[in-house]
Every structure is written in structure tokens, then in C-alpha cells.
């Protein structure tokens, strides 16, 4: 049996706890700013029009069946997925330096990457520490500690400016043991919404190169952040062009709205060298072994939908339009929230709301204020003061601004 000293009751996942509390709240005014999923202006989930079309194509395809995918997943998806990240004419692709595996969305990609590194990266133990930004997506900690990799953090968020703590970040990366694994959010950092500028990325790359650090990119918001797929991949492309050997965890949950379909990919990119293609083949063979013991074959339906869109020029163009709709609405909500707070004369600076990017914003509200806004105004956000911009809409943004104003005063 499993006594409590052996299997203690685990705490509920805070985010899912928040969702439960929101559902149980009977107030007609309630606002959900916790959820990490896009909502339209009516606070409803949005099936992308292009995804509806691809779904229709798929359902009318007489050849479509429910057979197993290969262990590495749907090749028509993984190949396009690597082009999406690295660019269609990327040298890394033409030189066969990229190994790609379809995974259980971004979480599965992070896990497969973590598992691979735990098994094969510097197995003598030196410099195997994974550096996570402080703060980071809460699941990173669990995913990397689950496979036994030691964890550390690098400073990221400056509470005063509500922007990047660039000096702190650089200092820690420079002091970290050579060859450390550095987890980087490719764009739209979760939870802060703060990204380095292109110039800052170049400096980060220079330090990491000097220290021979290993970049682990997590990209869950490509195209969703700025509305431009290439711009949101620019940090990854910079590192690849700089010749880093690196890995990338890629999610299609947010940018395709395929959350529950669990579509994503993991990519390994080798540095340019005469052995690069050989290294890539060997890495791919080991990824396949790991994948086999974990999930055997990745899920087919969402992968096919993404693949249909990525392999058709007209649908691809329509997808970009849908991405601009989502990112545009979010950027509009950032502007609206900031201007409403400024109109109210809410104490403090609110420029960070529009300076930050992507799904989330770190408001700067403290835990007491977060709990007060929840009990007084039925506005739900995580305890660290993070709000999902997607939870705001033209109908509730004024109400939320007033509620923030009240708890800040
Ligand atoms: N990485 C980050 C930073 C995220 O914010 C998320 C989702 O919230 C993910 C990865 C992975 O999500 P999923 O497993 O749904 O693709």
C-alpha cells in the first residue's frame, strides 16, 4: 500500500485551482485573467477559421484513417515545422543538421528534450545544470527536475522597471559553469511578457558562445506574439546562424489554437561541421528510442490539421491573417488597459502593459492585491500578478481597469 509518508497528498496545480475557483464563482461580473488560452472579444474560445477549413479537408479525405504515425511523427508536419522556425532556406536544413520529432505539444517537446539531455549531455555530471529564467513557466521546473537534471535560475524580471533585468541575466550567464544548459523563451516570455531586444539577444548569444553554454529554446508563441512568424523566430535564427548546437521545443497550441490536440515538435540542430549530418542522424536515432518508450507514436489529428495548413500556400496565408487577428486583438487590449488606467490616474507607471508582449502581462500587483481583486471584483489572476491579455475584451477592460485602480489605491 501507499502510506501518506510515502505518497503524500500533492498540492493542486495552482493554475488549474484558479480555473476551478473561477468556474465556481456565480458573479455575473467575473473575469478570467488566469487562462493561458486565446479568447475572442466575447470571452469565448476561438477556432481559427483556417483550422476549420483544414478540418473540413481532413474529414472529407477518403484516404484519411486512424493508423499509427511513425515514431518520429508526421514528416509533412515536422519538416515544415523546422522551416517555420529556422526559415525556408536555412543552411542548417539544407546541410541536414536538423533532427525533428513530433511531440505531445510543447510540454512533450520540453520533456523529450530534457530526457535526451539527462541521458546524453555531459554524462560525467559537470556543467549539466539547467538555468531557468526567474520567473519562468511553472512547468519548466517540474519537467527538468523530473528527469533529474540539476536546476538553477538566472535573473530575468526587474520589479522596479517591470522590464528585463539584463545586467542580472548577463552576470549569471557569465558566471555559470561552462557548458551549462540555458533555457530561453524564444518570444513572448511566460509569465512576464518581457523579451530581450534584438541587440540584447546578440549580447546574450555572445556570452553564451564564450561560455560554451547550450541553448534550449522553448517557443510556444511564434506568430502569436507580434503577428509575424519570422520576427517571433528571430532569436532562434540568430543563435542557429551563430553556429550554436541547440534544441528547440515548439508548440502549436496557441498559434493554431490546437490546445487539446497536443501538436508540437522537438528539434535538434547541430553546429556546422563535417560531422554535423552524422551527429544529427545519431541524435535522431536516440530520440526515436526515447519516444518509443514514452508514447510510441505521437497523436495524429491535430498534426494533420497543422500539416494541411503549413503545406498549402493559400491556407498558410490565411493562417498568418488569423495570427494577426489574435495578436492584434491582444495588442489592442494592452493599449486599452493602459489608457484606462492612465485616465483613472491609477498610482504608478503603466507603460509596461504596452511594452510587454504576447499572451501575458506582469501587472506588478502583489499577492494581497491579487487576492483582494479576486474577492472584491471577481477578477481572477495568478498570485504573482500575471494577467492573460486574452481574457480582456472591449466589454470588460474598463471594469478590470477600475478594479485594478481600486486595489492599487
Ligand atoms: N512553454 C511555455 C513557455 C508555455 O507558456 C507553454 C504553454 O502555456 C508551453 C511551453 C507548452 O504548452 P503546450 O504543452 O500546451 O504546448
How much helix, percentage-wise, in residues? Answer: 40-55%
**Count of individual helical segments:** 16
Strand order of the largest sheet: 2-10-9-8-7-3-4
Radius of gyration: 22 Å
Number of strand segments: 13
Structure class = alpha/beta
- Name the beta content range: 5-15%
Average pLDDT, to the nearest integer?
96
CA-based shape = globular
Subunit structure: Homodimer.
Enzyme class: transferase
GO cellular component, one term: cytosol
Domain Aminotransferase class I/classII large: 29-404
Structural notes for this entry:
Helices cover 46% and strands 13% of the residues. The chain has 16 helices and 13 strands. The strands form four sheets. Strands 2-10-9-8-7-3-4 form a seven-stranded mixed beta sheet. It has a two-stranded parallel sheet with strand order 1-12. Helix 8 links the parallel strand 7 (181-185) and strand 8. Helix 7 runs parallel beside helix 8 and helix 15 (367-377) crosses helix 16. Bound molecules: pyridoxal-5'-phosphate. Pyridoxal-5'-phosphate (PLP) binds at residues 36, 105-107, 137, 185, 190, 218, 220, 251, 253, 259, 264.
Amino acid at each position: 500500500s501507499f502510506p501518506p509518508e510515502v505518497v503524500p497528498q500533492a498540492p493542486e496545480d495552482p493554475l488549474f485551482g484558479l480555473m476551478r475557483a473561477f468556474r465556481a464563482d456565480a458573479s455575473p461580473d467575473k473575469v478570467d485573467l488566469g487562462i493561458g488560452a486565446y479568447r475572442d472579444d466575447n470571452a469565448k474560445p476561438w477556432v481559427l477559421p483556417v483550422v476549420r477549413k483544414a478540418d473540413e479537408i481532413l474529414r472529407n479525405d477518403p484516404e484519411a484513417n486512424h493508423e499509427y504515425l511513425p515514431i518520429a511523427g508526421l514528416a509533412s508536419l515536422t519538416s515544415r515545422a523546422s522551416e517555420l522556425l529556422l526559415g525556408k532556406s536555412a543552411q542548417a536544413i539544407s546541410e541536414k543538421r536538423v533532427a525533428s520529432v513530433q511531440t505531445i505539444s510543447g510540454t512533450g517537446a520540453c520533456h523529450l528534450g530534457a530526457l535526451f539531455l539527462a541521458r546524453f549531455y555531459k554524462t560525467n555530471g559537470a556543467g549539466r545544470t539547467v538555468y531557468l529564467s526567474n520567473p519562468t513557466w511553472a512547468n519548466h521546473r517540474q519537467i527538468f527536475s523530473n528527469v533529474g537534471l540539476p536546476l538553477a535560475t538566472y535573473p530575468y524580471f526587474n520589479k522596479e522597471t517591470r522590464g528585463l533585468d539584463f545586467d542580472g541575466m548577463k552576470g549569471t550567464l557569465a558566471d555559470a559553469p561552462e557548458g551549462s544548459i540555458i533555457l530561453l523563451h524564444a518570444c513572448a516570455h511566460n509569465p512576464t511578457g518581457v523579451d530581450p531586444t534584438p541587440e540584447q539577444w546578440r549580447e546574450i548569444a555572445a556570452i553564451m558562445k564564450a561560455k560554451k553554454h547550450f541553448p534550449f529554446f522553448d517557443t510556444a508563441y511564434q506568430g502569436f506574439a507580434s503577428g509575424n512568424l519570422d520576427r517571433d523566430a528571430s532569436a532562434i535564427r540568430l543563435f542557429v546562424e551563430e553556429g550554436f548546437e541547440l534544441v528547440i521545443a515548439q508548440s502549436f497550441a496557441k498559434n493554431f489554437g490546437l490546445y487539446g490536440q497536443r501538436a508540437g515538435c522537438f528539434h535538434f540542430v547541430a553546429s556546422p561541421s563535417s560531422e554535423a549530418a552524422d551527429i544529427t542522424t545519431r541524435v535522431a536515432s536516440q530520440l526515436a528510442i526515447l519516444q518509443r518508450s514514452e508514447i510510441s507514436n505521437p497523436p495524429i489529428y491535430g498534426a494533420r490539421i497543422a500539416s494541411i495548413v503549413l503545406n498549402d500556400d493559400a491556407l498558410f496565408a490565411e493562417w498568418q491573417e488569423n495570427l494577426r487577428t489574435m495578436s492584434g486583438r491582444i495588442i489592442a487590449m494592452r493599449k486599452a488597459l493602459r489608457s484606462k488606467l492612465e485616465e483613472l490616474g491609477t498610482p504608478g507607471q503603466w507603460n509596461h502593459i504596452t511594452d510587454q508582449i504576447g499572451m501575458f502581462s506582469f501587472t506588478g500587483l502583489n499577492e494581497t492585491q491579487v487576492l483582494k481583486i479576486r474577492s472584491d471584483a471577481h477578477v481572477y489572476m495568478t498570485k504573482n500578478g500575471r494577467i492573460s491579455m486574452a481574457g480582456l475584451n472591449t466589454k470588460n477592460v474598463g471594469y478590470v481597469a477600475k478594479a485594478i485602480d481600486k486595489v492599487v489605491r
